[in-house]
Amino acid sequence: MTLSPHRGGLVILLSFALAFMLTLLPLPDWAQQYRPQWYTLVLIYWTMATPQRVGVGVGWSAGIVADVLTGTLLGQHALALSLIAFITHKMHQRIRLFPVWQQALTVLILLLIEKLLALWVMGAISQPVPPLAFWAPPLVGMLLWPWVFIVLRDLRRRFQVS
Amino acid sequence: MVVSLALMFVDQREHHLEGIRSTLSVALSPLSFLVNLPRSISEWAAESLASRSELQQTNLRLRKDNLLLKVKQQKMDALEAENMRLRNLLDSSFKIGDRVLIAELVAVDLDPYRQQVLINKGTSSGVYEGQAVLDANAVMGQVTHVNPLTATVLLITDARHALPVQVNRNGLRTVALGTGRVNALELPHLPNNADISVGDLLITSGLGGHFPPGYPVAKVTSVVREPGQPFAAVEARPMAHLDRTREALLVWTLDTRPGDTLAAETPDDGTIGQQPAEPGSEPDSGEQP
Asked: What is the pLDDT of residues B154-194, one digit of tens each?
């Protein structure tokens, strides 16, 4: 927004890289479907904390990266993540003031939106309807949010990302 | 933004975006490399720290296996020659020789709702889109995305995959559709009186041109004939160990148009060439619905 120089872009980039690595990390079969949407959590945090830097554009790029890495239809994650970045960007001033548990609920809704969009895309390209466990990652993500939030906030403060 | 996304969707269908995808995935390959690193290290350690007696045992076992396989191969050579001779007499075309290359699976989890795996060979090894991939037992799938270093393989059980097969016993041709479950294939549109029964072996028919003919695919596990329904509900279990295998074989069908044989058979390093065969058939339409 202003002309003040941005700082700590590397930290944001690295946190995204870590999130993507966690997404690719091989897990045992039973755990695979509960894998939280790491990159979405990271995106929500940075959009909320530094809305002047991270927004729809970053969300879209992160989505394309996610598509390429997980081998989904190119644009599927991009659509969902740009929408999430948009919503978070709109509401960042409100979300910031929430206590953590209330934030977690908001995050749950955002994560569910991402899953819903993914479901629509899967329906559109005639993949079979996924089992109920498809909806588990948002819940896991919600439970993880407080920790993600604290870790990323400490990172932001230490490196003075603005 | 929405417009660009709409473009994406359209383009993806038409395969115009393969270039972008492969460039991006090359740029992102350090990530998968890092994720795969712990496993590579542990495998390397296990190999280099294996005890002497273990190595001796493996060596012994492998030698035995090799001997057995060689004996089988002898028979196979004779049979192959005889088969070719008979086919020549019948004036029909067939090809047996294929070139294969061994690739390793990269320990990376992709979208859990698609049946896909990543392998560590790409265009630099000559891998191309639509190439058939086997494991030690049977057909695994085909290459869908490829970049210079890695390739994504769509398994035959993915819900968007269809594979032309035939019943080994009587040559009945059909199509095996993926179900999205790793242990089941579906054979739709087989009439109620079709000659198919539990335990039948399905092999690739080679129709469609992507897969070489004659490789085992699956065993029929259930045939349900409902008198009221036009088609029987037939399910089969893939013979490839889709969820357990560590190595995959990439197959080049030797395109045996006369004069083309030699060009097709220039082996790279690490590939195993076999006898090319006589006149060949033309590949026709694509695979995926």
From this structure: 888 888 888 899 998 888 888 998 888 888 898 888 888 88
C-alpha B64/C-alpha B85 separation (Å) is 32
Question: B159 to chain A, minimum CA–CA distance in Å?
Answer: 6
Element (H, E) at B144: strand B139-146
Q: Does A134 touch chain B (CB under 8 A)?
A: yes
What DSSP state is assigned to residue B123? G
A137 part of a folded domain: yes
Is the ipTM of this structure higher than 0.85? no
What CATH code is carried by the domain that includes residue A151? Answer: 1.10.1760
Residue B28 — φ and ψ, nearest 5°? Answer: -95, 0
**Counted domains in chain A:** 1
Q: How far is residue A82's CA from residue B27's CA, in Å, rounded to a whole number?
A: 21
Most A CBs within 10 Å: which of B3, B8, B104, B154, as the mutation test of the A interface? B8
Q: Could B21 and A20 be called an inter-chain contact, meaning their C-beta atoms sit closer than 8 Å?
A: no
- B76–chain A Cβ distance below 8 A for any pair: no
What is the phi-psi region of residue B180: left when phi exceeds 0, alpha when psi lies from -120 to 50, beta otherwise? left
What are the structure tokens assigned to B27, written together? 């740029």
Question: What are the strands of the beta sheet with B151-155, ordered from one edge?
Answer: B98-104, B247-253, B132-134, B139-146, B151-155, B116-119
What angle is formed at CA B235 by the lines to CA B145 and CA B106, rounded to 5 degrees?
A: 30
Quick: pLDDT tens for A139-153: 999 999 999 999 999
pTM of the predicted model as reported, rounded to 2 decimal places = 0.72
Nearest Cβ partner for A17 among B21, B31, B111 = B31
- A84 near A92, Cβ under 8 Å? no
User: Which residue range(s) make up the domain with A140?
Assistant: 9-23+33-157
CA distances from A112 to A116, A127, B1, B241 (A): 6, 19, 21, 34
Q: CA–CA separation, A74 vs A64, rounded Å?
A: 7
Name the residue among A27, A36, A28 with its Cα closest to residue A148: A36
- Residue A162 resides in a domain: no
- Give me the amino acid identity at B130: G
